[in-house]
Specification:
GO terms for molecular function: peptide transmembrane transporter activity. By secondary structure, the chain is of the alpha+beta class. The protein has 3 domains: about 130 residues, D-Maltodextrin-Binding Protein, domain 2, CATH 3.40.190.10; about 100 residues, Dipeptide-binding Protein, Domain 1 (Dipeptide-binding Protein, domain 1, Alpha-Beta Complex), CATH 3.90.76.10; about 210 residues, Dipeptide-binding Protein, domain 3. The chain is about 25% helix and about 25% strand.
Length: about 500
């Protein structure tokens, strides 16, 4: 879906030159940029640097997936249904799911994939502290027998295959697991072998000719991590990058429209309100804050129309959500009377600081005294999770892990959720989330998910503002690049530079 720019924000020439220099020389690949066989390596500018040394047990796993270097037992199709990957088939019997491991797969260190390798990787994830969020509220054990692996949960779980599609449950070779660390360098099974990681600056991958899925078209990938959105856009404009992740809205209008692709994302900008302490412990003040916020002006002003006003936590990328949503139950509001609140957010997503400033103005107009605290995400996440702010503005993927929103809702709003920024502990919400988690896949589960969304919204613990559309930049010479709403795919075996 291509869009013409809505309006242009012209930057000083010096700013563009400075941004471009940030990228200059960063994409120097072996052999001067092209492989010995004449193919061109793919140069990628990504937004967020690694936060956990590219450990697959963290959100860094999605980088490994987007580079086609680490793989899971199953993948998801466009509808969120499980499809074979490192497992060729599976069947359920009560609380146990048995998966048949694919023959002919080798790890990047040359060792063959076995059922024991799957047990090692999944057990390490299941016993990690903290667990990957896809396993929030899930206790599982994994055993091997010949070429099969059996995953058993404490209670029957209809979503085990979808859970095992999460990049955080990637299968790596024995060499990856040394002590408490997990090292993905040279230990995956994908089309590209991770060969080098330079801290939070760059990464390099070479084509793995032994890939079970067939030889990749490109000889390798060179990645540079560029948190600055202006610099990422400049990399595309100046030809320094072939693929640019997450072009800021303000920069998209300055690019050739033919190089910009806009994809509706299952990602919601949400203001999480702290329900455990501070002014927003009072439900009436949470209701007052919600009523004071005007998301439409944010979509028009900050996002230049490249977003959708939120009606709930789940947006248009979850195609069935709107048809099953019920009108929200309103709650009484109280006058703020100068209540002082601090909103936290981060700079890694270029629009969020500007959104926070707009929220500050809107809440001040309603009678709140509002302060902002803005840092890089790596420097603010721990405080946000600890409830250090009265409110936290976050751009949050809603079906990132399993293709099913129940996992996101549990992680963010269950009293035991690992990403509970609102510090919410509400028995009605917990009960609704448990019902959603237990419901069988299909219509019944979707209805239960929407009932859980309604229970969360009734607390005003979270105020959904808008649903993002990701803007991705692809150079004219690049072909076969993925445009994935779930942010799992980017460079695939079919991606190459002409």
């Amino acid at each position: 879906m291509r869009h013409q720019p809505v309006r242009r924000r012209l930057l000083p020439a010096a700013a563009l030159v400075s941004a471009s220099l940030l990228l200059a020389g960063c994409f120097a690949a072996p052999g001067g940029g092209d492989a010995a066989d004449g193919g061109k390596r793919i140069r990628v500018a990504m937004m967020n640097p690694p936060r956990s040394g590219l450990s697959p047990l963290s959100d860094d796993a999605f980088k490994l997936s987007r580079w086609s270097t680490a793989e899971t037992l199953v993948t998801l199709d466009a509808d969120g249904d499980a499809r074979p990957a490192l497992a060729t088939s599976w069947k359920q019997r009560g609380a146990a799911w048995t998966f048949t491991v694919r023959d002919g797969v080798t790890f990047h260190d040359g060792t063959p994939l076995t059922a024991r390798d799957v047990v090692r990787s999944l057990t390490r994830a299941a016993t990690a502290a903290p667990k990957p969020r896809i396993l929030d509220g899930v206790d599982l054990t994994v055993t091997a027998s010949g070429k099969t692996v059996t995953v058993t949960t404490a209670a029957p779980d209809p979503l085990v295959p979808q859970r095992l599609s999460s990049p955080q449950l990637s299968i790596l070779s024995a060499r990856a697991y040394r002590g408490k660390t997990v090292d993905p360098v040279g230990t995956g099974t994908g089309a590209f072998r991770l060969t080098e990681v330079d801290g939070t600056s760059s990464a390099s991958l070479d084509r793995y000719d032994g890939y079970w899925g067939g030889r990749a078209k490109a000889p390798g990938i060179d990645v540079v991590f560029v948190p600055d959105g202006t610099a990422r856009a400049a990399a595309l404009r100046t030809g320094e990058a072939d693929i640019v992740e997450a072009v800021p809205v303000s920069q998209a209008a300055l690019l050739d429209p033919d190089l910009v692709t806009e994809v509706p994302m299952p990602r919601t900008n949400t203001l999480y309100l702290n329900t455990s302490k501070g002014p927003f412990r009072n439900p009436a003040l949470r209701a007052a804050a919600r009523r004071a916020l005007d998301a439409e002006s944010i979509v028009k002003g900050v996002y230049e129309g490249r977003a959708d006003v939120a009606e709930g936590l789940l947006g248009p990328a979850v195609t069935w959500a709107d048809g099953l949503r019920t009108p929200r139950r309103d709650t009484p509001a109280a006058a703020p009377r100068g209540a002082t609140v601090t909103i936290g957010t981060f700079t890694d997503r270029a629009e969020l600081p500007e959104v926070a400033q707009t929220l500050q103005q809107q809440l001040r107009k309603a009678g709140f005294d509002v302060r902002l605290e803005v840092r890089e995400y790596a420097a603010i996440e721990a405080d946000a999770l600890a409830g250090a702010f009265d409110a936290f503005l976050l751009s949050r993927a809603t079906v990132l892990d399993s293709g099913d929103p129940a996992a996101y809702l549990y992680s963010d709003f269950a009293s035991r959720g690992s990403f509970n920024l609102s510090q919410l502990a509400d028995p009605a919400v917990d009960a609704a989330l448990d019902r959603a988690a237990a419901a069988p896949a299909g219509t019944a589960r979707r209805k239960a998910v929407m009932a859980a969304e309604a229970a969360v919204l009734a607390t005003d613990a979270a105020v959904p503002l808008l649903h993002e559309r990701v803007v991705q930049g692809d150079a004219a010479a690049v072909a076969g690049v993925a445009h994935d709403p779930r942010e799992r795919l980017l460079v695939t075996p079919d991606t190459y530079v002409k």
